[in-house]
Task: structure prediction
Amino acid sequence: MQIVSALFVENFQMRQAPGPSTRIDITGAMFSMASPSPVPVTIDPHLVALIYCAPDQDGSGVFEVVFRRGRLETDEQVARNVSPFTVEPGKFTYRLVKGELEFAEYGQIFAHCRVDRGPWHIVPFTLLPPA
Result:
């Protein structure tokens, strides 16, 4: 299985379309945000990952997200989420993760995402000073 996309978003909804086919409505995709108050602050952005399962795979997997202060696996871990999932072979699924991220100062946190100990897919998120 592979991660097709991973983004921080404000809203995520699925809807049926003719076919039958599914549409995913994603709004407010972001890589940064103004802090709701001065630091220290805890925010809880939503990370959505779209995952594809090839037709020759069994459809069972584990989605892991490790939020780190840097891009390296040795950088400080600030939060972690692990969730098993199933998907019909040849289809897509999604995982929605709400991270509770503590910021003592403005800066970046990176969501390190992977399926079944596969390669990391890294998504940056920057907290900016209040607007």
